[in-house]
Write a structure and sequence with these properties.
About 45% of the residues lie in helices and about 20% in strands. It has a single domain, classed as P-loop containing nucleotide triphosphate hydrolases (Rossmann fold), CATH 3.40.50.300. The protein is of the alpha/beta class. The longest helix has 29 residues, at about 1-30. Bound molecules: magnesium ion and zinc ion. Magnesium ion binds next to helix 2.
């Protein structure tokens, strides 16, 4: 009987976040800004991927970055140095971004002059996937040194992902990582998932990732103009 009093409270918290996420999405759609939410464990290479992506798309896409971290503005400085307009969110200990934080950050960005918004979530494989931000697409960055067991250990995150980047493939000869075992674990949770093995150090695999990003944004714009 005690439990029944607690359940509605949890539902209210979730729906408040979902409502704000929906408002974020409407704002982004109305301005024609495509957005991705990048999730990963700490050190997988989320910021490195942003650093490699932004300059390679210079002159084609105008990119803004929202960086989520517990503390510091180190990653926003890296994104700015790479050529993006960026805003740092310090969550003050919160281990994931929430829609309200993204809403506040959106107000700081010149969205009228932006084609792609990249949100880098707090490094954490547990809860970011459970919090809608209003972004269009979830990108998960896995990395070879983390080990090939991660899809098996973090099924909720691997199930909620739309696109997977496997970073640090340059380290495959040096660490224990069975690509086949990893891919089988992913396939059980997200069959047919679009996957890009890359190295942000050597640049291997990045052209396919960039091509996919450009194509996805072109399709998004086409869908928006068809809907008008
Ligand atoms: Mg980072
Ligand atoms: Zn969290």
């Amino acid at each position: 009987m005690v439990m029944s009093k607690q359940i509605p409270v949890i539902e209210q918290i979730l729906s408040a976040n979902d409502r704000l996420a929906e408002q974020n999405r409407q704002k982004l759609d109305s301005l024609g800004v495509y957005s991705i939410n990048i999730m990963a464990s700490p050190g997988a290479g989320k910021t490195a991927l942003i650093e490699q992506t932004v300059p390679r798309l210079a002159g084609k896409l105008r990119i803004a970055v929202i960086e989520g971290d517990l503390a510091t503005s180190i990653d926003a400085e890296r994104a700015t140095a790479a050529g993006a307009v960026s805003v740092q969110i310090n969550t003050g200990g919160n281990c994931h971004l929430e829609a309200q934080m993204v809403r506040d950050a959106l107000e700081q960005l010149p969205l009228h002059d932006i084609d792609l918004l990249i949100v880098e979530n707090v490094g954490n494989l547990v809860c970011p996937a459970g919090w809608a931000l209003g972004t269009h697409h979830n990108v998960l960055v896995a990395s070879v040194p983390e080990g090939d067991d991660k899809p098996y250990k973090y099924p909720a995150t691997y199930r909620g992902v739309d696109t997977l980047v496997i970073n640090k493939i340059d380290l495959l000869p040096y660490v224990r990582f069975n690509m086949e075992r990893f891919r089988q674990g992913v396939a059980i949770l997200s069959p047919g998932l679009t996957t890009f093995p890359v190295s942000c150090v050597t640049g291997e695999g990045l052209p396919a990732w960039l091509e996919w990003l450009e194509h996805t944004i072109a399709t998004f714009r086409q869908d928006l103009s068809n809907a008008k």
